[in-house]
Design goal:
Low-confidence stretches: none
Radius of gyration: 45 Å
Strand order of the largest sheet: 1-2-4-3
Distance between the termini: 129 Å
Mean pLDDT: 82
CATH superfamily of the largest domain: General secretion pathway protein M, EpsM
Number of domains: 2
CATH architecture of the largest domain: 2-Layer Sandwich
Helix content: 40-55%
Largest sheet: 4 strands, antiparallel
CATH class of the largest domain: Alpha Beta
Shape: elongated
Strand content: 15-25%
Length: about 200
């Protein structure tokens, strides 16, 4: 029989959680507010872009209307003529750089008689020459000159053929090579450093 009202076990206070907010609820509220703010920002940015496009369209239409149709047509025709002129100049062939190259690289005891140009392959032009050399040694030196390192960027496949002695003791020969179109381009003739 228990005669006392004092409990034998110690009394512990039980904590009841109050009205505190949990961490998960706090994070979800922050994310929700951030999402709403970003959505509002994107919507305002879109409205701003649409407004700017409309202003630009109006300004472009006003600028277009400020020009006369005749002026625009004449400017378009002029632009077409300029572009056609550029295309013609780019495809125009100038022979003078080949003569300069020959002048600098043909030896003094070589005499050229004929010269012929024809269209080659890969934007190259075939040049065919015929001439006479004072001797086989001079012809050999001329062959070395045509195959020199400085000419390789302008001519390729240099061939001296059909050489034979003539009645006066000289040697007749034929020469053919492919000349790079950059050498004979009219636009490049304005640049004096093309042929060295």
């Amino acid at each position: 029989m228990q005669t006392s009202f004092i409990p034998k076990k110690p009394i512990t206070e039980s904590r009841v959680s109050g009205s505190g907010v949990s961490l998960f609820l706090l994070l979800s509220i922050i994310l929700f507010i951030t999402a709403i703010t970003l959505a509002l920002g994107v919507w305002l940015w879109q409205k701003s872009l649409v407004s700017q496009i409309e202003k630009d369209k109006t300004a472009l239409e006003a600028a277009r209307n400020s020009y006369e149709a005749d002026t625009i047509d004449s400017l378009v025709r002029l632009d077409n003529r300029i572009e056609e002129s550029k295309a013609l100049l780019a495809s125009h062939v100038a022979v003078s750089p080949v003569f300069i190259m020959l002048e600098k690289n043909v030896l003094k005891n070589i005499r050229l008689k004929t010269m012929k140009f024809s269209d080659g392959t890969d934007h190259k032009i075939r040049v065919e020459l015929s001439g006479t050399a004072s001797s086989y040694g001079a012809l050999s030196k001329q062959s070395d000159a045509f195959g020199s390192e400085s000419l390789r960027k302008f001519i390729s496949e240099p061939v001296i053929s059909d050489f034979s002695p003539t009645a006066d003791g000289s040697v007749s020969f034929n020469f053919s090579a492919l000349v790079d179109q950059n050498l004979v381009s009219y636009g490049n003739t304005l640049d004096s450093s093309v042929v060295q």
